[in-house]
Amino acid sequence: MPRKLSHLCFLIPALSIATLVCGASPAVEGSREASTTVVIDAGHGGFDHGGIPGQRIPEKEMTLDVAQRLKGLLAASGYRIVMTRDSDVFVPLPTRVAIANSYQNGIFVCIHFNSATRIGADGIETYFYSRNSLPLASAVHYFVAGGAPSPNRGVRRRGYYVLRKTTIPAVLVECGFLTNPNEGQYALSPSYRQKLAEEIAAGVRGRFSVTSTLSSTRVATGESIPLQSYTDQTNVGSSGRTRSKHSNKRSSRTKSSKKKKSSESTGSEASATPKVRES
Ligand SMILES: [Zn+2]
User: Per the domain annotation, does 273 fall within a domain?
Assistant: First the structure.
């Protein structure tokens, strides 16, 4: 697919730069990683299906599957894993946050898929809120967007509840649009969900290595990503329900965005503004 090829084109130089900026020694990395708890948060669950009304592919099932695959991968790498849910149950957002915040040395990885009423909307995007979450967000996005045959929608700052209330580095990755025919088809493939989990795992492992000095358009940098308040972003679109995504092109145009969002505001990762639905 042309899209995939174009991704590969900038993946290669970006990867070589990433290698160059690896700073910490393996020994330091190892000891630091040994004590790391990764709190994996599969979006939605139970009565909260995620997505938009009438959506064919249930987001809650996709998120749980990727989360469980990620759990296996990171556990095999020696991380301590905590799942906010490990079955099809509803877990309130404050509970998810409380779980995350009980691991002071942990990191929080929240997994979602996107949805939009416009079926053409597609791409991978990653959210963070606190500044100390940016390296994790950059790294996860770097790998997931690089490994997916989807447009790169960039790293964005937004005050979703689970990002705003967590005190540990926290990231929310949107693994593609289930309402898009192509991305929905990808998501239905177990091997693709495994791939997504592998890329997220690579981001977790590489969060000290993919730094803001990267020049690739695929990676967020402290300089290129303005730390906009989430209110700025949520006020751009029409309403939280439309979720139209205007920027459908690939990559890097992280800012502006008439983009409106998304599954997270849906039943769950409610943002603080009335423009976005709370659960
Ligand atoms: Zn969601």
Answer: no
